[in-house]
Amino acid sequence: PRSVEVRPTWASVDEGALAHNLRTVQAHVGERCRVLAVVKADGYGHGAVESARAFVDAGAWGLAVSLVEEGVELRQHGVRAPVLVLSGVHPGSEDVIVHGALTPVVWSPQHFQLLTSAVRRSGAATLPVHIKIDTGMSRLGVLPEDLGALLDWYQAHAASELRIEGVMTHFACADDAEDALTSARQLERFQACLRVLGERRIHPSIRHVCNSAGLVRFSEAHLDMVRPGIALYGAGSSRAVELPELRMAMGVHSRLLGIRELPAGTAVSYGHRQVLDRPSRLGIVPVGYGDGYPRTMSGRAQMLIRGHRCPVVGNITMDLSMVDVTELPDAREGERVTLMGTQGRERIDLYELADWAQLIPYEVTCGLSKRVPRRPL
Ligand code: PLP
Q1: 109-122 vs 147-157: helix axis angle to the nearest 10?
Q2: Is 85 in the pocket of ligand 1 (CB under 6 A)?
C-alpha cells in the first residue's frame, strides 16, 4: 500500500540548490578536479536518491555512501555513477559489493581477500578499489608504516582481480579554522604514502583527501578529487568554513494546529518550566523531538510566522511544540510556520538551529526523522 502523507509538517528539499552547490564546488576546485558527492545517511537527511540524481546531473563524477546498503539503494533506483563505499568490506558484504558494481574503500588484507574471492565467484572483470590511509584521523585506514606490507599482499594475491583506482585519506581537523598544521602534516604523510605506491609502480588515477572544510581551506590538497558532503547541502561544518555562494537546500515547515489564549501565570508544558508573564496566545505546532526537533532547544528556539520570529515556549514534547504568537493577533489555525528557512526578511538557518540545540549542523539535517516527509521545493 502507498503511504499516506497528510500531516502538516514537512521538509522542503530544493534540488536546484543541490545542483547549484555542486557547480559552486566544481568551480572552486576547477574543472580538472573531480567531485565525489557524499550522500551517506540518506543524503545528510535530504533523501539519498534525489540528492544523488541532482549531483550527478550537475556534474559529480560519483557518489560516496557509508554502507553497502546505501549503495544498493542507489543502484536499485537506477543511479549508474561510481559509488564509493566508505566503511570498508564487512564479511558477508563482498558479493553484494561486486554484484552492485560498488567501489569499496579498503585498507586490510582481509578486505582484499574477501573481494578477490567474490570477483572470482562472479566471473566479473576486475573491481576498482580505493585504498584508505590513516594519516591522523585514527579511525579507518592502513597506517603509513603498514602500507608496504599491505601492497605486498595485494601484489601477490589480488592484483588480477582488484584494480587500485584510488587512494585517499581523511582530515581530522580541517574544520578547525585555527588549525592548519594538523592538516598540513596529514597531507605530508599522504604524499609520502603516494611515493611508496609509486615505488611499486602503482599509480592510482584518483588521489583524494578533502571534505568540505578541506576543499575550502586547502587548495594544495584538492589533488584529483574532492569529497564534499555538507557543502553540497548548502552549509559548512561551521559558519567559519563555508563557501559564501552556497544555498541551503533544506527548509522545515509546519502549520499551526490551533491557538490557545492563556492568562498570565499559566505554566506551560512538561515540568512547568516556563510560566507566562503576560496574557498570551500560544500556537500549537505539530512538531517535536520525535521528528528530530531537539528538546534541548526548549527555551531558546524560535519559529517564523508571518515573517516574525516567535519564541518556543516551555519544553518541546515528542510530537508538539508551543510558540508565542501574542504579538501576531491575526495569526490563525493553519498558519504556516517555518522552523528552518526564510519567511519575508527573516531567516532561521542551519547554524542557528544547531546552536540552539547545541549540535553541529550535520546532526540537525541527519536527525530529522523519517516521519517528516521530504518534498521537492
Ligand atoms: N569523506 C569522508 C571519508 C567522510 O567520512 C565524510 C563525512 O563525514 C566526508 C568526506 C564529507 O564530509 P563533509 O560533510 O564535512 O564535507
Answers
A1: 20
A2: no
